[in-house]
User: Fold this.
Amino acid sequence: MKKTLSVVIVAGVVLTGCSSSWNPVNWFGQSEPAPVAVDASATGSANPLIPARRASIFRRNAAETYLGSPIETISELLIERRPGGAIIRVTGTANRAGPFEVRLIPDETQTDGDTLAYTMNALQSAGPANVRPAARSATAAVWLTDQELFGIREVRVAGRSNVLVSRR
Assistant:
């Protein structure tokens, strides 16, 4: 029994070290490149590794309409100075749980030479209304450069029931 076991172990070690067809590691061989037939009209590009464009949350379609409604209450408005501009960060509380795709939409009717006006909008799911405010909270931000902020003295963000204003 000891001789048979030692012969099997020695044979296994020797076979795995060689490049013969008896070696289980070599049973499938090396990989080789193979040509691929690509229909360029179907994928939109000649390279099969580059996928065709599709909808993404990072890339907006120009024809897409946003169906968000103003969030119930604006609870916090912060303007954080950064090199090259500022970040306007707004936190609001929706009337139902689960607001998503929150945006700060510029309000052209309220904007004049020294005021920037935004409305905080969100899409709402049909969630429960009687949950803690933390479950109904949503945050959105927008980056403005120093050139866009030049001459701006007031930033106002409106919700459905209130407006918060930050002045310089």
